[in-house]
Amino acid sequence: MKLKITYVRSGIGRLPKQRATVAALGLRRLNHTVVHEATPQVLGMVKSIPHLLKVEELND
């Protein structure tokens, strides 16, 4: 299973760790979308910043 992750809220004023998580997911600007495999590492990153992201499941 894959996840479609979209960056929908700005990281300005957020903790540096949260901004680093956004960058680690490969998100560069608002409304940027990336697709990742649903690994435990990616799920943990998404769970730590759900207020900044929109996540959709993609079935292969």
What would you say this structure looks like, in words?
There is one protein chain. Helix content is 30%, strand content 28%. It has 60 residues and is α+β, with helices and mostly antiparallel strands. The protein has one domain: Ribosomal Protein L30, Chain: A (2-Layer Sandwich), CATH 3.30.1390.20. The protein has a three-stranded antiparallel β-sheet with strand order 2-1-3, with no helix packed on it. It is globular, with a radius of gyration of 11 Å. The model has no long low-confidence stretch (mean pLDDT 96).
Question: Helicity range of the residues?
Answer: 25-40%
Low-confidence stretches at least 5 residues in length (pLDDT < 50)? none
At CATH level 2, the architecture is 2-Layer Sandwich
Distance between the termini: 6 Å
Produce the secondary structure layout.
Blueprint: E1 2-7, H1 16-24, E2 33-37, H2 40-48, E3 53-58
Antiparallel strand pairs: 1-2, 1-3
Main attributes?
28% strand; 60 residues; single chain; alpha+beta; 3 strands; Ribosomal Protein L30, Chain: A
